[in-house]
Records
---
Amino acid sequence: MEAPQKLYLLDYGAGNVRSLVNAVEKLGHTITHIDTVEDFARADKIIFPGVGAFGYAMQALRNKGFVEPLLAYIASGRPLMGICVGMQVLFEGSDESPDEPGLGVFEGRVERIDSSTKTVPHMGWNAAHVVGAHTTQGPDMGGDRRYYFVHSYAVPYTACGRQQKFVHTATRYGDEVVVSSAWQKNVFATQFHPEKSGAAGLSALQSFIERDLVRSSDLVEISAPATIEAALTKRVIACLDVRANDQGDLVVTKGDQYDVRESSEAGGDVRNLGKPVDLAKRYFEEGADEITFLNITSFRNMPFADTPMLDVLRQASRCIFVPLTIGGGVRDITDPDGQHVWPAVEVAGEYFRSGADKVSIGSDAVYAAETYWQRVADGVPPTDGTTAIEQIASRYGQQAVVISVDPRRVYVRSPSDAPSHHVIATSTPGPQGEAFCWYQCTVKGGREPRDIDVRQLVTACEALGAGEVLLNCMDRDGTNSGYETDLVADTKAAVTIPVIASSGAGRVEHFSDIVDRTDVDAVLAAGIFHRREVPIADVKRHMAEHGIPTRTVE
């Protein structure tokens, strides 16, 4: 009887590798972590995932003494699969870390995606077009399938030089075409995350695990970049507000303008719309492109390591293979005993290790933006590396940091009435007929207003390193009256990072309308999905019928 292959995971501290382990186990296999140099010799196959900065990844490999053993492993002819940054470090270098050489397995350099013509990071579900026919059976990829990408740097696809020898698929993002997978001899690598790409990604991963993907050295004719078609979809995100009810059980709830309790006539209990993991699994199966958990209970009376949301993530990531975001409580935390202090970057790290792909920062993003603008006013450099946004982005990458904005309208009769704020003409006049408003940011779940507007917040947070904006609106929350178009359009014009529209959706037409009018990157809803008033499949069908590209579920 043939001995089972020894599949190993090369983890340099990249963040969420739990999802990859869960994906491997979902496919019926086991995987062992590489802990020592000697483990390279034991491995039959290695999967090398990575997120965050190119330089951090290379330095971590060097600090662990893994560079030479990894190169020797590749030279031995045994299969290696790189994922995201795990693919990028296989090239010669990156503009992200100019002084840090890569491993040089593939020819070429990783370059910054141009943000002057599109949002960066490239975030969402896109196609991977196979660019050439091979004599060897390749990975199970291509066709109409979509894969989850999240990156700010990429290798340009030119179809020139040695790219004929190693480029397997290419992907168009706006006016650029990038290498989305590479395959040369025993090395296969993807820019996208197969473990976060649903059934399509699992098929690609299964190809590597269960087949011998060794490509012949024959040159093949490959497609010209101009032939690679655009295929990026608009994301539909399901959001779950999670809190403890009065009995201490974790439930999904939904507020009406941030009030999550039933009326006093109905008993005044916390609205209970279901169990977090059960609902999240349902959304994955129904076709949600991402799932966001917003923790609206502080859990201050227990050590952070015992926080129930960590277990929610661990359970969810076992059965959900699309990106997971966790929000609420991403800040410096001191355990109740006063002995253990968790810096925000370590809090984020625990969430990532438990299965999250992104963390959403709310109140602390407002405080960071206030400090940013105060430093600007004081004439000192506005960034100093101390904020949670900067530290998490530095270690885990810009794409891992979402800022969650909870604003409300403040009406004024003219822009001169609020000279220190960004005032816009509003399509929703105020109670006295006011034709202008500014959007005031709040903290502490909307309970405390601050003297900073949304434009000030998002531009400061982008400069600090945030990679995405989750844009709520307190005036629209729970109303089912449609998204706050004025706010979304103004915010989309203010930043180059992706923007998610949230708050107010009540009909399928609201989703297509906000995309058509603002070109927002993603749309999010909660209560109407929980109660099945508007199924996710209906939203996607309606958007597709109106010419808005969406991901279909295999």
---
Amino acid sequence: MGPLPLLLSLLSLLSARAAPAARVVRPGLEERLFPQVRDHFSFETCGNETFPQRYLVSAKFWKKGFGPIFFYTGNEGDIWTFAQNSDFIFELAEELQALVIFAEHRYYGKSLPFGLESTQQKKTALLTIEQALADYAVLITELKQQFNAADCPVIAFGGSYGGMLSAYLRMKYPNVVAGALAASAPLLSVAGLGDSTQFFRDVTADFQKSSLDCVTAVRKSFQQIKDLCLSGAYDEISSKMATCNKISNKEDVYQLFGFARNAFTMMAMMNYPYKTDFMGDLPANPVKVGCEQIIAHKDPIEGLAALVGVFYNSSGLAQCFDIYQLYQSCADPTGCGTGSDAEAWDYQVCTEINLTFNSNNVTDMFPEMPFTEAMREQYCWNKWHVRPRAHWLQTNFWGEDLKSASNIIFSNGDLDPWAGGGINRSLSPSLIALTIKGGAHHLDLRGHNPADPPSVTEVRKLEAGIISSWVKSAGMERLQEQGAGAAAGSQPSAPLSLQPHSRVQLPQDTAACCTGSRLAGTPFSPLP
């Protein structure tokens, strides 16, 4: 995502940035490469070839050979971006003496199976969730050998798409991963489950919580642009929205609408209580700042330009908006970004990941911009020569029928527009849903900050307690297995049908860690 407004815009941004920045942790990370198999599911051609997969590792806090392994399942971008915005993992690693690994997703960052040609047609076939999960399982297995960590339990972490992957990794490879924290993971919406109007309705709700006048002004600005378009007054639209190139037709106006809607999306997702540079430089509470911008302008369209400038022109130095350069429409209505990573994500949302969200100007404040399955299919065929499999994730990754899984935390912030497509109620004693009041997109993965709402501090404590119990439980299982093996070696084995069934008992204080959460009063116990 890429980065005019008037002096008022700049002054407001500067004042908003007075909040404290997130403290930097991330100690001792080293960048390394692993020779990863190109195709895990073929024994011919690509199955015998490798590519350099990038990963980051820190043993700063690790109790060598005994401490757990915290493994971040990289998502759609450069792995350093996620490592620099997931300080909770390092804080917990210090507490539990863990080895920390951040693995980059194939086809993103520098982990390119076919080099710079990776996103060209006929080179993208190996860009699948299944291949990425196999990458992670193989990498974990190999690194455990390299670090002499065979008995060290692995906990997966991830946010957003990475959160989906951490949950999937636990579901598909429970022999490799003992538990997973899936933060802001929209497992239901990406599987084509739920309401297609939910996302932009919830973006609107975020701005409405900030100011009802804000939503009224936004609706008015879009309506005025539409009216000017119908009358052919494209020059006026161009002037008030400060576009670098003149708006000259309805297609340009539609692009302008997508460009503007994307700014609202990013500001709602990144609505943190302190300034960040995660997916663009944003001030503290960007939704509030944006609303102040549009309300301060008498002209609604100029106010809209100032609002979107909070995202696209954070420096206040740009004189105009190149709406085709800053925003590129794709098969993800919430935005793909720009560059090669955006191309890879566009392919993924054209194949397995279903994001057919639309805005309708009824349940949301945005112009009517439909995106149906038919429209997605046509776009994806024209762009990639592929046909989306709309319901594949429901079959391959269980859809909403997750009850046979175990040891997964699903965390969501109530300010995050992705939350409505995630798991928001606990499904079993070990499939735990936690809600962060006043939390935006995977706020819990970010490190401690003085500006944090109390709810995220409490949720991080709950997560730490649950993860600690998983680590202890895995250690107890190892001891039981070793004890059973020693006993079997010293005495004759009982007939298989008479072997006793063992059940691991979790620490007694585990249940207490969830006081005040959705699981209050519900004791933890492993699934049979």
---
Amino acid sequence: MTNKQRVVRISTEQPTHTVCVLGTEISLDVSGCTPKGATHFDVQGTAGLRVAIIYDPKFVTDAPSALRWPLKSGVEVVVSMNGPSSAVNDNKVRVSYYGPTGEMLAGALLYLTCIDLEDMSLVILTTEGPAGIFKNHQLLLQVSSSDAPRLRVFRDGGNASLSSYKHVLGSGKLSYTLQCSGGKQQTSFFVEGLDFPDAGFEGLVYLSATLLEASGQDSPDTPVFSDTVVFRMAPWIMTPNTMKPLEVFVCSVVDKSLRPNKDFVEAVRTLAKEANCKLTVCPWKENRNDQWIQDEMEFGYVEAPHKLFPVVFDSPRNRGLKDYPFKKILGPDFGYVTRELNKKASSLDSFGNLEVSPPVTVKGKEYPLGRILFGSSIPGASKGQMTQVVRDFLYAQKVQSPVELYSDWLRVGHVDEFLSFVPAPDRKGFRLLLASPLACYKLFKEKQREGYGDVLLESPKEENRKTIDEILRNETYRRHNARAQKCIDWNRSILRRELGLSEGDIIDIPQLFCLKESKAEAFFPNMVNMLVLGEHLGIPKPFGPVTDGQCCLEAEVRSLLEPLGLICTFIDDFFFYHENKGEVHCGTNVHREPFPFHWWNIVP
């Protein structure tokens, strides 16, 4: 449709309203309403559109003064839109007319609503019959009052130059009478969905067509026939770590001493380059010193048979990054959805507490788009739950049937503190990584037997520089980690059952925890909280005991993951992230390729 053009006439007496199709152009007739005595005009438009002035230098010989153009010189004004409208009449063009001495004589306003036909579903209504029948019959299209806010229907005027796309149903319009002339007639309509499935809305909307017979001036028309078309709103779909990364996001921030986190940003930049992945750095003025970009948003997408585009889900946490998804991610080819709270969000509402598994099969039932995972309190507890509006939204999408885990035993309470997924060349195509105090104690006991009991953890924090011997004989540490292991084992059982996993699909990553006010937090940087970019892993540097010339924790993780073809890069996140109760995954975010599988092929 690119560069198809139509003429729109404007008026100085009243505003003009029109619909513009994305990819087409509007030629403004600026001469048709020229006020008496006008010699020049100017044009101004809102940020969502582009205004081009086309002129012949033979007729416009002088540079326009103050961007005012001479009338009657063949100057053409062409308007096009940057992206689809988010509301009716959300963009406008003002044309002002001036006299020979510069005085303004009049102005004309044009309001535009832009639609993208490629984003919409095409419906073709075919009628056929003798012309005389429609003298006493009419065809009525209708939507219910409950469906009207959730869709918009545009009628194609049938002009090859796209001269008319009329908004006929939805957004306050409940019915439309189609004029039929007899014979065979095909009318095209484009249907746009405005909402996602959610609590109380299964995602189904209905468009009905009714043939009515006129019954006389004082009697209601009589229905002769009615038919209904059902549309299913496309669900929002998350993408797991195993999908190809397209773009990595990280925040540039400063600490209390105003030192920037540039070393961390550069480490992520290097990793993204090695993974052949675009990097976007969110500057301080846009994040307001909020580095937790994983908590702020989750990338996904929506898909129809004719169109696919990404959609960012903005969490309700609303801290420093609260405006970033809407102002910087939302765009002509990038959708946006959020769910707002009428109360303060808890940590469980942040999207570090939201993950999705790769595709799995559980007892013969296939989940080709994986299953959503999020954390809450222990089953049956009245407190410690992800907020209801977000839970309702996730469950309503249906195609990634959610699994609730127990994460409220952690001080921050996010599932990414104890689990991650990495790609693998065998078995199910992935491995589930679980943080494991038991694996860490086993490793430290091995190093103790090898004679390294007096070796210190290389922690940048003095109070954490304990020897292997000190850690192993500390009963408080042992008690804290026994509790953490029980909580992780509880989740391990849920994950095995709900994802159809065996022990061979799980890798235990050595990790210690400590309790603060009865909640657990990582004793050293939590290696399972990693950035996964294909085969490249950005893992929090644990600063463990150095044995045989290398950190024994790093060496253990390499021995577990490198045989899968994965490349381990350990990133120092200690002061900016670990000390603030987060790690590499918490401080980054990734937009990934969509699944090749189409959601409408899922077997219920």
---
Amino acid sequence: MRFGLAVQLLVFGVSVLAARVQVTWDVGYKSISRDGFSTWRAIGANGQVPIPPIYVTQGDVLELTAINHLDKPITLHAHGLFQRNSTFYDGVGMVTECGIPPGGQYTYMIDTGEQHGLYFIHGHYGLEMSEGLRAPFIIQEKEQSTEYDEDILLTLEDWGQQPEGELIERLKQVSTDSLPNDYKTGLVNGINGNISQTVQFECNRRYRIRVLNIGLDQSFKVQIPGHTMHVIEADGVTTKPLRVDGLDLAPGQRYSVIVQALESDEFNYGLNVTMHADFLDPVPGLTPRYYPQVIEYRKGAPMREYAQQSDDALVWPDDFTLEPRDECEMGSADRVIELNKRNYLPGMGLPYYGLGNASYASVRVPTMLSALTMGDLARDPLVYGPQSSVIVLNYMENVELVVRNGMNRSHPMHVHSRVFQVVERGPWGDAQAMGKRVVPLQVARPNNPMRRDTVVLPEFGYIKLRFKADLPGAVSIVHCHTEHLAQGMAVVLVEAPRVLQQNARVPQALLDNCRALGFPISGNGAGNQGYDLTGLPPAIAL
């Protein structure tokens, strides 16, 4: 099976009107087997699973209309898009909207502005993303800044043996200390990775390969033995070319690499994909899982074999070796916000997680609507409810997030609406006592630290991230981009709420959807006035 043809505008319920691209997703269920042995009710769009990619050009506005044919609410989030002055299109359930009710619809206006590169669109209400509601979103540059002959898309995702939502409901009845492992199957461009696919190469041509991990909790490594990769983009940020031997992508991360085809077609080569997870002990045949694909120069040519090398002998992209092409000095820190990953083990069911004193959970009024309607009180985090985990930012202050993790599992941390500078990474907790590697201390170059929107918080380690609060009125969630969001590992940033109150023009359809779902559209987190939070369930203290 072949994939990776030269990119053209993919027509999928799409019509192009000047700088506007109109797309309609009829979101519904489809019974399908994607791993070759388990069949269950996945979520797709327009009758298709996987949902095909969306291509636009830098500066376009994507008008994405979602029509909900499910029996539960949904939202759609454009992962990595800034949504400047349009936080009500960020698509986070009970943060920026109530959701689209069954039978309802909502149109997301996604203005690409100056952004370009590799992104994706996914459900962000519950765990619909893991059940198929996800698709690559590619913003092509108006003027190509890197020379290449052909564009290839490599989409990686994990697929469970049952819907993730059903799995979590089942695990709620299991003792905390006996939670089973869920060994998943890796999908390559929507197809079971065990089915070898072919990428056609021609001698002496230059290829841009866009690689993204849109899965839930598994990471992926990608290598092309015998070929050199140069990273030119990470999470939508154009980078100075960096030579690497392979890529390692946590959930939510994306890279573009330039690969120079060889001069001879004497051999074909492997395109090796490995799915792995640091929270699973190696089990032969189950984890890690290997999915060999083929780089084909000539049909019928023999495969060139290479001796396997250890990961430590190879060069991988790292946030402290990557450099943005557009240089920007390390920002100062007017304010330091410390976020410690914490657990609460109830004895039965899944653990609760959090980044502060309480586990994040949905409230009765979307945080954005509380910020919009609570006047001066919107500057006080207390009015949003303790389970909303709100942090209020002042306009243009320089913020440093220090995120610590004393547990034996890494976490891909994603910040909505912006990119941040990765300024430091180091050890935290007692890794040696757990038989784990001690994270080395690394500090970014002060003249040009890497910027991105999704970064790995290492096991028994910490990261420091910096950004300027230059999005007045934005309501942005910061969260682990795995199922841990559903377990509460998140905080919400509310920036200059008084500016939101002065400038926001919330779509009427958003308010109508709230009413249809029975949620208030004003007031504090409980839908009341002042500090009366009657009606909210107790927050889970950590």
